[in-house]
Amino acid sequence: MPLRTENRLGEPCWIDLVTRNPAKSIAFYAALLDWRAVETGAGSGRYTMFFHGDAAIAGLTAQDPSSGNRDFWTTYLATDSVDETVRAARAAGAAVLAPPQTVGDQGRLAVLTDPAGAAVGVWEAAGHRGFGADNEIGTPVWHELITRDFTAAIAFYEEVFGWTPIPLSDTTDFRYSTFGHDESMTGGVYDADAMLPPGVPSNWQVYLGVADVRASAARATELGGAVLREPWDSDFGTFAQIADATGAVFLLGQVEPSPRA
């Protein structure tokens, strides 16, 4: 698997899971995606890193089981300066959930809520660059913002993170843009205001790559997870929405095995 060495400004560069039951979560992803968990030690808050092969793929941190909070994945966007990004985000209408903080010699992070209500992380890399690989089986393959205010969300990420949105569809039935730099596609934004149930906020969701979505969805159920949306085929591939063994939601996306694997 080729290692990824660079994340450009505003692109998704990392994901991590907050879970009430780390052991259960680790066992689920190890069995489903062949991830290997490595605890980084007390100096980094007992943060756990997931690897697929030699490549760092994601992180995990524990939350208090009595808090009543759901388990969830967070997407982080790359920045050259967390402090400057947070200042710009505040000026553009964001709220700050977790203020800028240093994580040992690995980098600096913050967590924001964009003007449409979606939580998103910001990562300024030092020792830890982010994903070691992506767009392969067992790695993140797509990142998607599901938003209740499409216009405000697009404007915010253009201003703060330098996105170049490319409309894929712009009708009242289906409004979707990809984003990236120089017409590259690193993720998408979906106008979901008419689709989200009452009380469900805008949110980021991650797609994880597998060789066979239908088989992996069935396996997720065997491992204690649930299929929230049955596998479906589209012009862009085959997908399914999954809740893992503790309830954190993600999507499966089908990818072809790498010829380098």
Automatic annotation (TrEMBL):
Protein name per its UniProtKB record: VOC family protein
Domain VOC: 11-125, 139-255
Record-linked InterPro entries: Anthracycline_SecMetBiosynth (IPR052164), Glyas_Bleomycin-R_OHBP_Dase (IPR029068), Glyas_Fos-R_dOase_dom (IPR004360), VOC_core (IPR037523)
Source organism (scientific name): Cryobacterium flavum
Domain of life: Bacteria
One Pfam family it belongs to: Glyoxalase
